[in-house]
Design a protein that fits this description.
CATH class of the largest domain: Mainly Beta
Order of helices and strands: HHEEEEEEEEEEEE
Largest sheet: 8 strands, antiparallel
Structural class: alpha+beta
CATH architecture of the largest domain: Ribbon
Distance between the termini: 97 Å
Number of domains: 2
Number of helices: 2
Length: 198
């Protein structure tokens, strides 16, 4: 009997304040892990939505090369809007031999394109006003001019006319509507080029 009371006397029960403190710590831990779990879940959902938007609606592309200088530069990151409804003067991205090329729409189905030796471009006998071209050139051209754009095709050219390989060459030719990735909307990087693409 004496042995039992000695054992009971050595067991120290925590005070009410210590129990409240421990309970509060446990509650805070539970809240922290709930907030952490919901934050991680939210970030995963946002990332998945961003990937879907970038893939299906607004593809993000990186420019490679100099065929669109001075409008776009090598390594620029641009955003395109999906859709095949392209107008003269717009910059589009399209699939070509497992690559994506970026060029400017010059003419659409049925229109006649002509280019003189100085590099002036005419569509249906009207010279285009091209403020985006800093140096005009006939460039690599092995098509017979004047040239009529076939049905459901788009005639495209790069803004850096002397180096761009585009619809002036049979190597690329005119772009079919199903090849179009989208119209380039704005440049996202670097920040000194940030803005809408004209």
């Amino acid at each position: 009997m004496e042995e039992t009371s000695k054992n009971n006397a050595s067991i120290q029960l925590p005070s009410e304040q210590a129990l409240k403190t421990e309970l509060e710590k446990e509650r805070e831990r539970t809240i922290f892990f709930r907030v952490l779990r919901s934050t991680v879940l939210g970030l995963v959902v946002v990332a998945a939505a961003a990937v879907l938007v970038a893939t299906l609606i607004l593809p993000v592309l990186q420019i490679s090369g100099s065929s669109m200088t001075d409008t776009l530069h090598d390594q620029d990151i641009v955003v395109a809007a999906r859709g095949a409804d392209c107008k003269t003067g717009e910059v589009i991205a399209f699939y070509y031999n497992n690559k994506i090329l970026v060029k400017r729409v010059i003419a659409t189905s049925g229109q006649w394109v002509d280019i003189d030796k100085s590099g002036n471009v005419y569509v249906d006998n009207v010279m285009l006003n091209e403020p985006y071209v800093t140096e005009k050139a006939l460039g690599e051209c092995n098509i017979k001019l004047p040239y009529q754009v076939p049905d459901n095709r788009i005639f495209v050219m790069g803004d850096h006319r002397s180096v761009s390989v585009d619809s002036r060459s049979t190597a690329v030719g005119c772009v079919a509507e199903e090849q179009i990735v989208g119209k380039l909307v704005f440049c996202a990087w670097p920040f000194n080029h940030f803005g809408f693409i004209n």
